[in-house]
Design brief:
By secondary structure, the protein is an alpha+beta fold. It contains 19 helices and 31 strands. The strands form nine sheets. It has a seven-stranded mixed sheet. Strand 29 (662-663) and strand 30 form a beta hairpin.
Length: 732
């Protein structure tokens, strides 16, 4: 998932705004918040009495329009519950539909006002928006009922979508749509006291898409079948930065079903009337690549260079400077002092490895450009499509479908695979639909990766064994380089690379800190990966703290408690205490098992985990994982638990096995046979406990991912007495 950005989109004119594709008609009414007149694909549209977030139907169905994509994280249930709570709607009659691309209506302030889903921000960004929309709509229906029945509004109650009066009069939402539409919405609708919530925080808030995903009716990009549609695949260069020098399409064009072969900026496109024909045609292509500007280093060489930069053996590149990001006291003290703990950590490139590889459907050349696919960042995709299609961004229509995972992959500044599809569809022309299909191998070798990263840490301790000085160096690629003007990329320190170190309670509890970042240029495309910087910073901080506790002869939990107390990190202390209690930290682990603990804050939430680990045939096996999370108000406890389970398995998979290597600039791994992931039989049992909170919701999609790695490493430290200084734990 990607970090929130400050500003990416430029100010949009009315002509550039693509508005919600729903109108006031017949049996349904679009409601949400008051908005000025807007445009939809060049036509004037009435946005509805209250705006774009809610629709009511005469049968009593309430539809919540979600501006955030559903790609497995289950946010649609939580978003629907927020609005339904304030509405007092019947949860069994609440549905969710995906919003169209329209940053003016559906912008995410945590992503610079662009429309997108990332940074574990879907629920937190929509919290007040949907509460207000629900409360306003409820007030409208109450006012409409009061006027119709001739009774005071204060005497009307709403329960499960039914308005009632003590006189016995009753009506459902569906019966009052027409009257409610005429009521002026309250400027500041009264919101419920959270103590009176009857839906939020209840286990009955379950996913609304489970049935469709179970019976095959849920629609993904691969399910799209349109009249006269073509299928395309692209031959990508084996090395990043290489370009097409020449190609011979003779054999490819002999494949039955292949209709065209041509060059696009990222490679050579093969267009056919079936996926199989496109694949065979691509296999038959002969391409000569120009590798003059390609990245030719292997991952081992890149890591060696990073290590030399961190150690000072090699000076930083001329155009790249070290940047301090969390420093206090005399930096010279952090480099001096005897008996220091000096450690270095290495983290490899990682693939996002989504279950559904990249794909997109585009229609260009007849009417406004249209895309159909699982768009994680519609605004970016509109902007990049418009540039190629020579259209206004607001004229680009995007129909967002379900997507089979992302972990950050489907959102990038370049809209890489989307742009490929648009180039191909533009060449085909006449608005003919083109579906671009990436294979697993395409995404594994030609996609984006979690950056390879190196940390060095030097810590001296006081007489009680706690950090007195902390010197920290991080060398990694910046995922924000290449960001559009106005975004934080290229200015100052890349915060995505240092989150988890910067502001850590461990550094707050340390008198002298000297922390710096170096982001050398490497030709490998890198991107946010589920939990972004925390994927490596959590590991370094938590595994280092366990080593400090070991040196001091202190229990790891007690050692953390002391540091959190010094730093005033009360939320960290609370989740640590809860996880330790539920795991039975002070009691012996089951025979043959050893416990490890880790705590980390990311995306506004704090997670503690205690993992029970043993080693079988040299491979760590994780059995029980006890998780405690402070995520503010938990809309759906069941979904919070599901995200902790999924995030734990995703993080454990990376820590144990994840490894993308390059040889001569080319990626070695092509599919799951060489890019090992966690098997079902290897998944631990995850228990989740939520710290009660009245605070607004914070992230849950990513915070469970970075904690499991160090928890397991700390258990291994207790077993072997040796730190684990590189990932993956299990070498190929």
């Amino acid at each position: 998932m990607n970090k929130p950005l400050k500003t990416i989109a430029t100010a949009a004119t009315r002509r550039e705004v693509l508005v919600v594709g729903a109108t006031l008609a017949g049996s349904s009414l679009l409601v949400g918040c008051s908005l000025p007149e807007v445009l939809s694909a060049g036509s004037k549209v009435e946005p509805g009495a209250f705006g774009p977030f809610l629709k009511f139907a005469q049968d009593g169905t309430v539809t919540v329009v979600s501006k955030h994509i559903e790609f497995g994280q289950g946010n649609h249930a939580g978003l629907a519950a927020i609005a339904a709570e304030e509405l007092d709607a019947d949860w069994t009659k609440v549905e969710v539909e995906q919003a169209p691309a329209n940053a003016k209506l559906y912008g995410n302030r945590l992503m610079g006002g662009t429309q997108g889903t990332g940074g574990s921000s879907a629920i937190s960004n929509s919290w007040m928006q949907l509460r207000t929309a629900g409360a306003a709509a409820r007030a409208m229906f109450v006012s409409a009922a009061a006027a119709k029945w001739g009774v005071p509004a204060g005497e009307i109650t709403v329960l499960n979508g039914v308005l009632s009066h003590t006189s016995g009069k009753q009506a459902g939402f569906g019966e009052l749509i027409e009257e409610a539409a005429k009521v002026a919405p309250p400027a500041e609708p009264k919101l419920k006291d959270p103590k009176t919530f009857t839906l939020i925080g209840q286990d009955r808030v379950r996913r609304k898409d489970s049935r469709a995903k179970s019976n095959g009716t849920a629609k993904y990009t691969q399910d799209v079948q349109l009249p006269d549609m073509l299928i395309a695949m692209v031959a990508h260069p084996p090395k990043f930065g290489a370009t097409v020098k020449s190609f011979d399409a003779a054999e490819a064009k002999k494949v039955p079903g292949v209709t065209d072969v041509f060059k696009i900026p990222s490679g050579v496109a093969v267009v056919a009337n079936s996926t199989y024909a496109a694949k065979l045609g691509r296999d038959a292509l002969k391409v000569e690549w120009d590798e003059a500007k390609a990245e030719k280093r292997g991952s081992a060489q890149i890591l060696a260079e990073f290590k030399d930069y961190a150690s000072g053996k090699t000076a930083a590149p001329e155009k790249v400077k070290w940047g301090g990001f969390d420093s206090k006291g005399d930096a010279a003290q952090a480099a001096a002092g005897a008996n220091a703990l000096e450690i270095a950590y290495d983290f490899p490139y990682l693939s996002h490895a989504t279950m559904e590889p990249m794909n997109c459907v585009a229609m260009i050349g007849k009417g406004p450009p249209k895309l159909i696919f699982g768009s994680q960042s519609p605004t970016l995709d509109q902007m990049n499509t418009a540039r190629i299609a020579l259209a206004l961004p607001g004229s680009v229509e995007i129909e967002t479908l379900f997507a089979g995972g992302s972990f950050g992959r489907r959102s990038n500044f370049q809209s890489d695979y989307v742009v490929e599809c648009v180039h191909i569809a533009k060449k085909v022309g006449k608005g003919r639909p083109v579906k671009l299909v990436w294979t697993r191998e395409d995404d594994q070798r030609s996609g984006y990766f979690r950056p390879l990263t190196h940390h060095t840490v030097r810590i001296t301790t006081d007489k009680d064994g706690f950090p007195a000085t902390w010197r920290h160096r991080i060398v990694t690629q910046s995922i924000l380089k290449g960001a559009p003007p106005g975004s934080p990329g290229g200015k100052g320190v890349d915060f995505t690379a240092v989150e988890g170190v910067m502001g850590s309670p461990y550094l707050k509890a340390t008198p002298v800190v000297d922390a710096q970042l170096l982001t050398p240029d490497v030709g490998v495309p890198v991107l946010w990966w589920r939990s972004v910087g925390a994927t490596h910073t959590a590991y370094v901080m938590e595994h280092t703290v366990d080593q400090l506790a070991k040196r001091a002869g202190k229990d790891p939990v007690e050692y953390r408690r002391a540091l959190y107390t010094k730093a005033g990190a009360n939320r960290h202390l609370a989740v640590l205490n809860l996880a330790a209690e539920k795991a039975g930290w002070t009691t012996p682990a089951p025979a043959g098992w050893t416990r490890g603990v880790a705590v980390h804050e990311s995306f506004g939430s704090v997670v503690a985990q205690v993992a029970e680990v043993k080693v079988e045939n040299g491979i760590p096996k994780v059995g029980r994982v006890v998780t405690a999370i402070d995520c503010g108000t938990a809309i759906s406890p069941d979904q919070v638990a599901a995200q902790m389970e999924g995030g734990t398995c995703y993080g454990l998979s990376a820590a144990l096995f994840g490894n993308i290597t390059l040889t001569g600039g080319a990626v070695d791994q092509a599919n799951f046979d060489s890019y090992r992931v966690l098997r079902n039989s290897e998944a631990p049992t995850v228990e989740t406990y939520i710290v009660p909170s009245a605070n607004k919701p914070s992230g849950v999609g990513e915070p469970g991912t970075p904690v499991i790695g160090p928890a397991v490493a700390n258990a291994l430290l207790a077993i072997t007495g040796q730190p684990t200084l590189s990932q993956p734990f299990v070498k190929a």
